[in-house]
Amino acid sequence: MTRRIKIVVILILLLTTATTGFAEGGHEDHHFDWVGFLGKVFNSTILFGGLIIWLRKPIINLLAQKTLDVKTDIVQREKELEKTSGHLQEIQKRLDKIEEEITDMKQAAEKSGEDEKKRIEELGEKESQRIAALTEAEIANKVENSIRKLKSRIADLTIDHLKKDIETRLDKKAHEKIIEKNIDICGDIIERE
Question: Which end of the chain is flanked by fewer CB atoms within 10 Å, N or C?
Answer without folding.
Answer: C
